[in-house]
Write a structure and sequence with these properties.
The structure is a single chain. By secondary structure, this protein is an alpha/beta fold. The protein has 2 domains: about 200 residues, 3-Layer(aba) Sandwich (Rossmann fold), CATH 3.40.50; about 160 residues, Response regulator (Rossmann fold), CATH 3.40.50.2300. Helix content is about 45%, strand content about 15%. The protein contains 16 helices and 14 strands. Strand 11 and strand 12 form a beta hairpin. Helix 6 packs across helix 7 and helix 13 crosses helix 14.
Length: about 425
């Protein structure tokens, strides 16, 4: 009788252990993170760096068990070709096939804006880490979309403030703009013109040039601008377009004859054009590593990135790395990888990133982060020029007032 009871007891224990092994003991659910960037097309130059930094962040987090110490990050990377229709198709496939919970997307603001409603429809987190059109978060806001890069208004205001100070100092009267003909270029140019008019009312915008996105030949623009002899030119060109423009304009002696303040010249351009980039240009960038080496997280990131890729990180690498760590801290606050709870936890969240302690604004999920203005000059510590006398224009100094955001949303509904 005792034998039968003992045998029955062991059968029960083994059965329980079997079912425990099938359920409670299995590995925790991995976190499927999508990355949909313009790996080809005009966005390729910046997107490749961002993918590298995202991979590094995922490796670091996975080395400690993953999100919450138990949810390993699995990356699913797609090429949007810097095209809205392709971006929508690829992100839908990431959602339906790969079951992603979040997507970092895109180089192009036009692609990010096309993807935003898709992410909202399927309740997937959408993080803009390069694309920075203000309209990504200002108009038709999505509770699932977060922006970790200074938006076009913030950048335009930072550049315009610096340019306005120079215009007053130098007595400039007329200027020209050159901006890529797509969402970011147009919105950045429009905001800069508006801010310059407010700050320096006697400035006259003489002409606007709008080369197509992906333009390779700028000769007609260069000669056309030089013929008009403006006091300065305000540029809104980026990535490969900006590289082509800068190289071609220099051959005409453009920068020796016409002031060119406020242009977006990121660490990518500083490195790639180290020998040819004109010195003493006053320019703007979004996340230069050398501005925050006093922050341990940035210093560690630069060290680890250089060890892995044998190069210094660009702005785009910094922003991609910060995007993953902002998501990580959202998960930690939510104490779960459940998207709805993570979404709610990230709203108004203060995060510790390579650029310091920064907060997502509750009205638009825009990270209150800085822009950087400085003079391009050589530094013996680096094999490329950096920014001297760098001015950090904080998010609180450059953000659009909330009342204007509410007015814009109201007008958009009419």
């Amino acid at each position: 009788m005792n034998f039968r009871k003992t045998a029955a007891f062991f059968v029960t224990v083994i059965t329980c252990l079997f079912f425990f092994g099938m359920t409670g003991a299995k590995a925790a659910e991995p976190y499927h993170l999508g990355v949909a960037l313009g790996l080809t097309g005009t966005g390729a130059l910046y997107s490749a760096d961002q993918v590298e930094a995202i991979k590094l962040a995922a490796e670091e987090i996975n080395a400690k068990g993953g999100f919450l110490g138990r949810h390993k990050i699995e990356l699913f990377i797609r090429d949007t070709q810097t095209k809205p229709d392709v971006g929508v198709r690829e992100v839908k496939d990431l959602i339906l096939r790969d079951k992603i919970k979040a997507v970092i997307n895109d180089y192009s603001s036009a692609v990010a804006m096309a993807v935003k409603p898709i992410a909202q429809e399927y309740k997937v987190l959408h993080i803009a880490a390069i694309s920075n059109s203000e309209n990504i978060t200002k108009i038709n806001p999505s509770p699932y979309t977060f922006q970790v890069v200074p938006n076009s208004y913030m950048q335009a205001k930072a550049a315009a403030v610096a340019t306005a100070k120079m215009a007053k100092l130098k007595g400039w009267k007329e200027y020209i703009t050159i901006a890529s003909d797509y969402e970011w270029g147009r919105s950045t140019q429009a905001e800069a013109v508006k801010i310059l008019k407010e700050m320096v009312p006697n400035l006259t915008l003489k002409k606007e040039f709008c080369p197509r996105l992906g333009e390779a030949q700028y000769t007609s623009y260069i000669t056309g601008i030089m013929a008009l002899k403006p006091d300065f030119v305000y540029g809104s060109l980026a990535s490969n377009d900006n590289v082509a423009w800068m190289e071609q304009a220099k051959t005409y002696g453009f920068f020796d004859k016409i002031a060119y303040p406020g242009s977006l010249i990121s660490v990518t351009e500083l490195i790639l054009q180290a020998k040819t980039l004109p010195r003493n240009l006053i320019a703007l960038t979004r996340a230069p590593f050398f501005a925050h080496l006093d922050i341990p997280m940035m210093a560690d990131f630069v060290k680890n990135y250089r060890a892995k890729y044998n190069k210094f990180p660009s702005d785009w690498a910094v922003l991609g790395y910060d995007a993953v760590y902002a998501l990580k801290q959202g998960v930690e606050k939510a104490k779960t990888i459940d998207t709805e709870k993570v979404k709610d936890s990230m709203k108004g969240l203060t995060v510790n990133l390579t650029r310091g302690k920064l907060t997502f604004r509750t009205i638009d999920n825009q990270l209150s982060c800085s822009s950087y203005v400085g003079t391009i000059t050589d530094d013996p510590k680096y094999p490329f020029p950096i920014y001297k006398d760098i001015v950090e224009v904080k998010g609180s100094e450059s953000e659009r007032p909330e009342s204007e955001i509410l007015e814009a949303r109201k007008a958009a509904k009419k």
